[in-house]
């Protein structure tokens, strides 16, 4: 089932999400619904707060990036097969010189900006069967994970922009929070919920 994506302005996107246990109610169903929601909105990642749940789950599928001609064969191969669920994730290390990449977010439609992130990460997490893993990622894979990880920490990519950039997009963000935006996927707006 496709779930509505929570729009910028909803307090759930600002909460630090909570760990869950293996007996979380209807976990498999939630994961299936999140995959369906992500693909329905043509996303490469989705975190539980984006569907209104302040819990530490996110998923990524970087295969759309595998078409990028500028990447090495090795990178394209890694991106083509990287489809994962991360539960109770914790980034243990971020290293290297920060690099810019143009990011967007399903909760903040029609806003894309360059964001600086470290190129390599090591992350500890549980998969959907609650097996524990510690893995390292680099490049675009690391970036997509960092973006989704930020969601479970209550951080949005717009928080990483300069104050000038933030001022320039303020009007767009206000419109998104009020539901004054056209998107081709279901969204839930905080302002509309309050009845304004």
Automatic annotation (TrEMBL):
One Pfam family recorded for the sequence: Pep_deformylase
EC number in record? 3.5.1.88
SUPFAM superfamilies the record matches: Peptide deformylase (SSF56420)
As for family, the record states: Belongs to the polypeptide deformylase family.
Name its co-factor(s): Fe(2+)
| BP-aspect Gene Ontology terms | translation
Report the function annotation for this chain: Removes the formyl group from the N-terminal Met of newly synthesized proteins. Requires at least a dipeptide for an efficient rate of reaction. N-terminal L-methionine is a prerequisite for activity but the enzyme has broad specificity at other positions.
Molecular functions (GO terms): metal ion binding; peptide deformylase activity
Which parts of the sequence bind Fe cation?
105, 147, 151
Q: Which residues form the active site?
A: 148
The yes or no answer to whether the keyword Iron is present is yes
Cofactor binding, per record: Binds 1 Fe(2+) ion.
Q: What is this protein called?
A: Peptide deformylase
- Reactions accelerated catalytically: N-terminal N-formyl-L-methionyl-[peptide] + H2O = N-terminal L-methionyl-[peptide] + formate
Q: Which Gene3D superfamilies match?
A: Peptide deformylase
* Record keywords, A-Z: Hydrolase, Iron, Metal-binding, Protein biosynthesis
> What organism is this sequence from?
Salinimicrobium profundisediminis
Which InterPro entries does the UniProt entry name for this protein? Peptide_deformylase (IPR023635), Peptide_deformylase_sf (IPR036821)
So which domain of life are we looking at?
Bacteria
On whether Cytoplasm is a keyword of this UniProt record, the answer is no
- What CDD domains has UniProt attached to this entry? Pep_deformylase
Q: Specify the enzyme's EC class, one word.
A: hydrolase
Lineage, broadest ranks: Bacteria, Pseudomonadati, Bacteroidota, Flavobacteriia, Flavobacteriales
């Amino acid at each position: 089932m496709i779930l509505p994506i929570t729009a910028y302005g909803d307090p759930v996107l600002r909460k630090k999400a909570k760990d869950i246990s293996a007996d979380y109610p209807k976990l498999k169903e939630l994961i299936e619904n999140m995959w369906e929601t992500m693909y329905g909105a043509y996303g490469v990642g989705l975190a539980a707060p984006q569907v209104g749940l302040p819990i530490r789950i996110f998923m990524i599928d970087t295969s759309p990036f595998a078409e990028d001609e500028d990447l090495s064969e090795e990178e394209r191969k890694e991106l083509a097969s990287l489809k994962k669920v991360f539960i109770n994730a914790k980034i243990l290390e971020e290293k290297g010189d920060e690099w810019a990449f143009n990011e967007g977010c399903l909760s903040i439609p029609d806003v894309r900006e360059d964001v600086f992130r470290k190129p390599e990460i090591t992350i500890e997490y549980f998969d959907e069967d609650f097996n524990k893993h510690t893995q390292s990622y680099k490049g675009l894979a690391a970036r997509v994970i960092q973006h989704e990880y930020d969601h479970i920490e209550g951080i949005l990519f717009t928080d990483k922009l300069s104050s000038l950039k933030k001022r320039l997009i303020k009007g767009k963000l206000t419109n998104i929070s009020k539901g004054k935006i056209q998107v081709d996927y279901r969204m839930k707006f905080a302002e509309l919920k309050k009845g304004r």
